[in-house]
Amino acid sequence: MTQPGDIEVVYPPGAVTLKGRWNIKVYSGDVLKQEVEGDNVVCTNGKEFLASFLGSAAAAAATFTCRYVAIGTDATGEAAANTALGAETARASGIVSYVSGAIYQVTATFPSGTGTGAIVEYGLLSSSAAGTLLSRDTEAAVNKGANDILIATVQITVS
């Protein structure tokens, strides 16, 4: 609940934030004596922990891995409502790591003969086929020839 003098923080579209709320109740027998609630601060170490957890969970899990990087040729700008790439040409399982600074990182390699063409879109997904699109990006074209190797690295910062 906002109070007079509270500062409203406006986040950009697609921003991920963490927010917590505490509710404390003190009882004497069955009688509620006191109740206090309020918002908390998500600590820097907590953000680091979550980013590290994402990395270890993805590295060890059979599901909910979010380690698949897709590349494609659709230059339509990214939007929060995207659920897939516009024109996916290849997908690879990436190497997951935790980077300090509350950063979850996935690096995928697309070898010779895989995903050739003018690559302009990139996505991080939860499955080797279909799956949930966690992140999508469009950039200037990178022309990947049949003998070229493309390495894509995505970083997700918990903030």
Polypeptide structure, described:
This protein has 159 residues and is mainly beta. Helix content is 11%, strand content 45%. It contains one helix and nine strands, in the order ββαβββββββ. The chain starts with 19 loop residues before the first strand and ends with a strand.
List the helices and strands and how they pair.
Blueprint: E1 20-28, E2 31-40, H1 44-60, E3 68-72, E4 88-93, E5 95-99, E6 103-110, E7 117-125, E8 133-144, E9 150-157
Radius of gyration from the alpha-carbon trace, in angstroms: 21 Å
Tell me the strand order in the biggest sheet.
4-3-7-8
Query: What sort of overall outline do the alpha carbons produce when their principal axes are compared?
Result: elongated
Describe the largest sheet: 4 strands, antiparallel
Identify low-pLDDT runs. none
Average pLDDT: 79
Terminal-residue CA separation: 22 Å
Total discrete domains: 1
Determine the fraction of residues in helical runs and give it as a percent range.
10-25%
Given helix and strand content, the structural type is mainly beta
Count of extended strands: 9
Number of helical segments with 4 or more residues: 1
Question: Strand percentage, roughly?
Answer: over 45%
What's the helix-strand series? EEHEEEEEEE
Task: Give keywords.
159 residues, mainly beta, four-stranded antiparallel sheet, three-stranded antiparallel sheet, 1 helix, elongated
